[in-house]
Amino acid sequence: MKNLKNIDKYMAISLRDIVFIIIILVPFILGKYCEFNIPGPFDSGSNVYSAKHILEGAQIGIEEDPSAQVGTLLMNMLGVQLFGFNDLGPKIVQGFFQLIGLGLMYYSIRRVFGVLPAFFSAFAAGFFISAPLIAKYGNVKEQFMTAFMLAGIALFVLYLKTDKRIFAVLAGGFLGWAPLFKITGFSAIGALAVFFLSSLIFRWKTFKQLLTHGALLLAGFLIFAGPVWIWINASGAQISTPYKSALVRVMPDFGSDSPVPEKQKSAGDVDKQAEAEKKEESAGSYVERTRKTRSYSEHAPVVFRYYGLLILPIGLAAVSIILAKIRFLRAWLSKKSSIELSLPDKLTVLLVCWWLLDMALVWVSTRPYEQYYIPLTASGAFAGAYVLYRIFEWCRGKGRKFTVGGFAASAAVFWIFCSPIFAGISQSPYSGKSYGEGVKRKGYIQRMEQASTHRQGRIAPWEIVGLFIKNNTSPDQRTYVWGWYPGIYVKAQRLSVCKKAFQSDMHTLPASTLEKMADNFIRQFEKHKPKYIVDSRKRHFPHDRPPLEFWPSTPKGFLPANERAVQSYEKAYSNVLAERIEPEEAERFEAFSQLREYIRENYQIVDKDGYKFTNTGPRSKRFGQMVVFRRK
Questions:
Q1: Out of 110-124, 175-189, 232-246, 563-577, which region has the weakest mean confidence (pLDDT)?
Q2: What string of DSSP letters covers 103-128?
Q3: pTM (global) more than 0.85
């Protein structure tokens, strides 16, 4: 009879877990439905393009200059190798690792904090990491990084709970990979360091125990992340990692001075030239150039608007800090306190520090991209398990009715703060301005509608451009797309004639760098003579300036290929840029003068008569804002 009761109890818990997991997966699956059915024109396209080019044999740093870090690059190479030259494969790979992260999060919280905190915390994480508000179209590095951090922290929590060393080794592997997607992946490792220090200070663990923990984590790092360096060294790839500077004293330098395979030794001059070009194009770090262009006074309102939209995971973590602080103070102030800090109490130090670092890291760069906020939603949801643990522990002490009431109240709070993200928002997080009366955007509902219409054949202008190039060129022909629309290459199934296939920093790089870039374009265009070139005319960061065009226009039409008219326009336009934007922007425009001349002399505009012109530029019913050039 006792065994039957145990079986009934086990079955009841299992059924509850199954129901909870299904509910957790609902928003996650909806998010994946949107991502799988809408190709990514920006980050996803760039990652897929670089992966395809490298799989075709391109040498990293010499023939291909990827924008992705090595972790994102390898995951996209895996996806492209398995599923072809599209972004569905990498999105499937990403979804797989996100499921691993969410699953381990649920299981670890369930083991330490209980089943109800596990349900609500994992639901919040799954809801926000797939939310169109911050997830773009999928296959962005922050999604990969967050999945690996979730898995790593969850495994470490399980290690502390069970003392099974395999969990620590696996945790080291996942956490070691996180910064390989983006350097901000160090937030989880940094939180772990604070937890180790706290454990030593408060004598939760002995130094010997912490040494064992660290050794197991390091073993996992070497086992799972070590092969990345082997691959970099063996391939001679000119690609850096966040660990390179730290390891340069104890491991071979994998940069330009490292040993390379015999077949590459004759290409030493090419390597040096490629490295010099890369340094020239960097023109200061990404963060430095961003801060110079956009001030913190402009950035702060955007960050706080996003904080407001993501108030659920942020609020959960913030309340956890307050409760944990009270708990710690009571235990410390009472000399004969009956309060003994439990594992959930101690783990709050790890989880809250991780969340605080993620919250702080969105301030490092003043580029307000939505995907930067993905990590803090996951760490906030994980840290929020503590407040949920305390709430339901109190409810259980009061009886079943209180537990049911606590569950209902928690569900109501989650609904209140999740529903705007699901239904869409009415104001832009960037500008704070309304989208219009009754207009909502960036919600699950709007993105699902977009996915549905896309499945029915309603595609975006950039996809039309890609299909046009695909249908009018042979597979061995290459093209070039100016601006940040790398998805065009993927849709066209064509590679670029230039090593730097796409560019998003045209308004932050100095004019001298752009001038050398333009000279390189002319050399490559003259060498390969691409049949088609695309000017995406995308307004990119900072968004207060017009696009840097290949063939300018006025409200009356495209500039005529007349030298006197061009000179007159360019002089007047440079003065306008200098007065209304900044003198540096005028210099950037002037740096492309030779390139514009080359385009006018060697190319003609496709469907030129199909454009209409306004003060914001040309627009075609067929290609939208983009301009396609065909070689004469």
A1: 232-246
A2: HHHHHHHHHHT-HHHHHHHHHHHHHH
A3: yes
